[in-house]
Amino acid sequence: MFSKILIANRGEIACRIMASARRMGIATVAVHSDVDREAAHVRMADEAVEIGGAAAAESYLDIARIVAAARETGAEAVHPGFGFLAENADFVAALDAAGIVFIGPTTRAIAAMGDKLESKRLAARAGVETIPGHDGEVEDPEVAVEIARAIGYPVMIKASAGGGGKGMRIAHDDAAVVEGLRAAASEARAAFGDDRLLIEKFIEEPRHIEIQVLADGQGGIVHLGERECSIQRRHQKIIEEAPSPLVDPEMRARMGAQAVALARAVDYRSAGTVEFVVDRNKKFYFLEMNTRLQVEHPVTELVTGIDLVEQMIRIAAGEPLAFGQDDIAIDGWAVEGRVYAEDPGRGFLPSIGRLKRYRPPEDVDGLRIDAGVFEGAEITVHYDPMIAKVCAHGADRDEAVGRLGQALDAFEIRGVETNISFLAAVMRHPRFAEGRLTTGFVAEEYGAAFTGAPVEGAVADALVAVAVLVHLGEGARANAIPGQIPGYAWRPGREWVVTLDDRSETVEARLAGGGVDVTLGPRGLRLRGAWQPGETRFTGRLDERPITVLIERRGARWRLRHAGAVVDAAVRRPREAELATLMPAKVAPDRSRYLLSPMPGRVVSILVEADQEVKAGDALCVVDAMKMENVLRAERDGRVARIAANPGDSVSADQLILEFV
Question: I want to staple 231 with a disulfide (CB 3.0 to 4.6 A). Which of 239, 308, 332, 442 is the partner?
Fold first, then answer.
């Protein structure tokens, strides 16, 4: 067994690998860029080596510097995590030449499976079902249009190399093929240094289901069941679960057998994942094979009890698998939500800043959190915006989903926008609860943006009750402060008007027995739980149902977050509420004449000129943010008055790019 390994990665996956290495008694070495000197993975490692600048190309993608760091520290092996160099055959070759073990598959397997064209051909020869499409690279737009027409719309344009949703576009017509070809090639070139593209049939109502495999390189190959990864936005997975609510034992056996056959065809070694797209009739097709550890691997670990990182290390050290297919069993259910620094209200665009507050959930059964941050850490434009992965395990799907929803309600992050409320809303969505999933779920149920779950039923009751509790609690504390002016003490009264955003309800309320009793018309609510003014999290029980609500003071209001709903709440006496309706509404400034950057990033290209006439929907510019290219389009007809940014410029959120007449 190795005595020291280097982790060629950062963030939560670097910390995750170090945790397994530590349990195995193996020392760890972190590598980091100059902006990551104080990062969590650097703090956690036994040793750390700075390898370059903030740009990934100058640090985490610099093969020579990483190999040199392994040599300098005496690391016997390197684990790549996922992303960066995890599926780079040149990196493996460089390690081999230096006499350092790569904790992963062989260069042959990486090269074969990393090329989507070659992997599709190999899969077909191995007896794996493949998606109809063009068996070759596509560069010319006219040829691409001919191919797309022959296949039949809609089609998927995607990078031959890489993954993670980058270099992928769906086209429903000829124009979309031409633009998608350009955008996908540019994005793939930036992300993978390889702009080769392929075109294949886009499966409608698709589900994304993948099979985890382990192979020891000595003939031992097993699969560990499936993961459902259909909840995605912009082709990026955000919620995963194991097993899948669609897959039955017979289907699992068939998918598993095909995944094992493909792994055997390339003499696979280490952990790998064979991804399938599944249509409405449960017919599955090979999508790709990821020759690395997957982001969503924790759900498989939770239901199988197998530490995939440990197995990767043992296999790399030459050990055979200590178990066979018959030894693997699925225990319960696990669900994972990826917490990202992004703004769901702005189409899930990235958010940057410092984590002014970072309080993970506590006291939730079956909970696992993989994170690579801490309070005070900074989320920058240089790397992927994932903050943490929140995973919950339960006896069945309902219990696992319920536990994850409970954990998300209690997860408090401030300083950047996050998708936590969105994830919490999905956990309560009826369609998700029924398991009716497709990769279009987010777009179909929430559209281009998410502004909060509906405030109704039990969610509305909880928010009303907590708003009253914090208001009365603050008043009671004010009365307890010594030195009160006689006759001016705060008087609670019984009748209150509770306003949640722009909806108001008259209630009767009183503090009672460590909580509050609230009457809403014929209904009574009993809220119990300890809360003190200044606390930002309330945990208690509403009519014996456990609830957690996050609380943030906003002037005379409180911002409350619960079950995916985000509201600004005010509690007033009836006369105060009456007078409040007379206050003039604040009018938002007219920004229709400006194109503002919706997120921090870098201007890739300006697609228009000054004085040019544009129509609604025309592409105006391309902004790159956290490895993704975003095309900004005109919202109305107009004429460009001036251009305020140039290609290569760094822009902040809401910074002016174009002005219209």
Answer: 239
First to last CA, the chain: 69
Overall average pLDDT of the 451-462 stretch? 93
Contact 62, 38 (CB under 8 A): no
Q: What is the pLDDT of residues 269-321, one digit of tens each?
A: 999 999 999 998 899 999 999 999 999 999 999 999 999 999 999 999 999 99
The model's pLDDT over 188-206, given as tens digits with 9 standing for 90+, comes to 887 777 888 889 888 888 9
Residue ranges and CATH numbers for the domains of the chain are 4-103 (3.40.50.20), 132-201 (3.30.1490.20), 208-446 (3.30.470.20), 457-480+492-580 (3.30.700.30), 594-660 (2.40.50.100)
Name the residue with tokens 């017979």. 250
| CA 306, 308, 313, 316 torsion-angle sign | positive
Between the CA atoms of 215, 220, 225 and 231, what dihedral angle is there, to the nearest 10 degrees?
Answer: 10
- Triad 11, 194, 599: Cα angle to 5°: 50
**pLDDT above 70: residue 332:** yes
Residues in the chain: 661
Angstrom distances, CA of residue 231 to CA of 209, 238, 439, 441: 11, 6, 6, 6
What pLDDT sits at residue 2? 98
Task: Give the separation between CA 460 and CA 466, rounded to whole angstroms.
Answer: 10
Structure tokens given for 192: 């993978």
Contact by Cβ (8 Å): 371, 360: yes
**Is 390 in contact with 399 (CB distance < 8 Å)?**
no
Catalytic residue numbers read: 288
371's enclosing H/E stretch is: strand 367-371
| CB count in 10 Å sphere of residue 608 | 18
- The H-assigned helical ranges of 210-351 are 249-265, 297-304, 308-316
Q: How far apart are CA 520 and CA 542, in angstroms?
A: 14
Give residue-wise pLDDT tens across range 112-155. 998 877 888 899 999 999 988 886 788 889 999 999 998 889 99
Plot region of 427 (φ>0 → left; ψ -120 to 50 → alpha; else → beta): alpha
Dihedral class, residue 381 (left if φ above 0, else alpha if ψ from -120 to 50, else beta) = alpha
- Distance in angstroms (rounded) separating the CA atoms of residues 157 and 184: 7
CB half-sphere exposure, 64, CA atoms < 13 A: 3
Give the C-alpha separation, 198 to 156, whole Å.
8
Q: 164: which 2 tokens?
A: 């993670």
Confidence band, pLDDT 50/70/90 cuts, at residue 628 = confident
Residues 6 or more apart whose CB falls under 8 angstroms from that of 274 comprise: 128, 210, 211, 213, 258, 259, 262, 263, 286, 289
Q: For residues 113 and 291, is the Cβ–Cβ distance under 8 A?
A: yes
d(C-alpha 527, C-alpha 469), whole Å: 8
- Measured distance CA(239)–CA(122) in Å, rounded: 30
Residue 18's alpha-carbon distances to 3, 7, 234, in angstroms, are 13, 8, 30
